Amino acid sequence: MRKNLFRGVLLGLGVASMLATFPHTAAADANSEEMTSQVKESEQHTRRVSDTEKVEVGWVERIDIYPEKLRFDAKLTPGSEGNVLHAKNIKKFKKGKKTFVRFKVDDKKGKSIQLEREVVDTTRFRTTSGKLEERYQVMLDFCIASKFFHLEFSLADRSNFEHEVRIGRDALAGHFLINPGRIRTTRPQCKRAKVKKKDSVSEES
Amino acid sequence: MHHCFFSGRIPLSGLKKLLLVVFLLDFCGCSVLSADNSPEILTVGWLEQIMVSPPGIILHAKLDTGADNCSVHADNITSFTEEAPDGRTRKFVTFTVENRYGERKALTREILRTAKIKTKDGGFQRRPVVRLDICIANYFQSTECNLVDRSHFAYPVLIGRNYLAGNLLVHSADTYMTRPGCNLGE
Fold it and tell me: Cα–Cα 20 to 30 A to A83, which of A11, B36, B96, B105?
C-alpha cells in the first residue's frame, strides 16, 4: 500500500517537473493569443531572408565546454556582443611569463569543478561603489548544436542570474537564428576534430 | 490511512509508458503542445525600427532574447491617481519618449503593476509597467513594457521575450531587416 503512495508521489513530482519546463512554450501561446493581430503580409515592409544554412535554436541551449566536456545551459543573447561565464573563486597566477587564472564553476549536479585557463585580456573598471576591479578574459573551446567554437569569454563573478553561460553575437552571428519561444532544442554534437578558429573581430551591421 | 492516487484499474506500467513519452517530448523541446512549428514565422534582426502607436512614433529597438520583458526609456515620468465612479482608484503615468530624429511624444497610460527589474550589480529596481501597442515589420502586438532609464544605452527600447516568443525569430547578425508597417484595419 505504501508502494502505491510512493509511486503516486513520484508520478506527481514527475508531472510537476515537466509542467515547470512547459511554461516556456506555453507562455508563447498565451502571448500570441492575447491581443495580437497578424495582418496580411505586405512585401514592401518585410524581407524574408533565406537562412537555410543557419540553424534555428532556442534562447537557451545546451553547451559543452572542452576539453573538460562540462555541460551547461547557455543563454543565447544576440543583444550582447561577447560571451560570459559565471565563475567563482577567480584567482590569477603566473606560469613563467604567462598569466593564468584558476576558477570554479558548478556542474549540472551542483558539484564545483576547478578550471585553469590562460588570461588573454584583462579589463579594469570601477564598481558603482568605487572599488577597482579586474575582469579576466580567457579562451574557451565549446560546442553548441553541431558548431564548435574557440572564442573569448569574460569571467564574471557569481551573481544571482539563472544561467551560468551567456553567448553573444560573436559566436551566434552567421550560425544561429534564435527562436525566443523555445529552449533546449539541441544537444551539443561536435566532432572533436573540427576546431574552427573563428575570427572574433568581425562585426556585421 | 493512506490515499491511493489511482484506483488500481489503470495498470501503472501503461501510465509509466505514457509518462515516459511525454517526458521525452518535453525534454526534446518538441513543440507538440506549442502552436509554433510554422515555417512562416518572420525573422527580424536583433535591431529593428518599431512603431509605437498611439502616439505614432518610430523608435530604434534592440530585440533581446535574453530579456524577459519589454523595457522602454522614458523621461519626465509623473504618476497620478484617478478615482473611478465606482470608487476604485486607478494609477496613471505620463511620460515622454524621444527617438533618434529628435521627435518627442508624450504618453499617458494606466500603471498595470510595478515590476522588480534586475540591475547589473545584482540589485533591484521598482518600475511602472504599462501597456504599449508595438508594431515590428507587419507584426502587431499590444504588450506590457516597463518604463526605465535607458539614457546610457544606444537603443531606447528593449524588446523581450514577452513580445517575441512564438511570434518572431531573431537574426543574430543582421539588423534593420524590416520597417514597421502594420495595417490596423480595426
Answer: B36
More confident residue, B102 or B149: B102
Identify the pLDDT of residue B24: 64
A36: which 3 cell numbers?
A: 495580437
Mutate to test the interface with B, among A42, A46, A50 (most CBs of B within 10 A): A46
Q: What is the DSSP letter of A43?
A: G
pTM, 2 dp: 0.70
* Residue B175 maps to a domain: no
pLDDT over 80 (residue A29): no
Give the pLDDT confidence score for residue B37 in this predicted structure: 45
Please answer yes or no on whether B5 and A7 come within 8 Å at the CB atom: yes
What are the start-end ranges of the H helices in B34-175? 161-164
State the Rg of chain B over Cα.
22
Beta bridge partners of A25: none
Residue window 84-123, chain B: list those with CB within 8 Å of chain A. 118, 121-122
- Residue B5 pLDDT class (50, 70, 90 cuts): very low
Whole-angstrom distance, CA of residue A73 vs CA of residue A89: 21
Which amino acid is it at B84? Answer: A
Range of the domain at B146: 42-170
Q: Tell me how far apart the alpha carbons of residues A8 and A74 are, in angstroms, rounded to a whole number.
A: 34
More confident residue, B27 or B47: B47
- A39-69: per-residue pLDDT in tens? 333 333 333 344 445 789 999 999 999 999 8
| Gap between the Cα atoms of B45 and A6, Å rounded | 50
Cell of A193: 576534430
Domains of chain A: which residue ranges? 54-183
Pick the CATH number of A54-183 from 3.40.50.620, 2.30.130.10, 3.40.50.410, 2.40.70.10: 2.40.70.10
Task: Specify if B33 maps to a domain.
Answer: no
Question: By the 8 A CB rule, do A106 and B92 touch?
Answer: no
Share the mean pLDDT of chain B.
83
Query: Which chain A positions have a beta carbon within 8 Å of B165's beta carbon?
Result: 24, 27-28, 31, 180-181
Most B CBs within 10 Å, among A11, A31, A189, to test the B interface:
A31
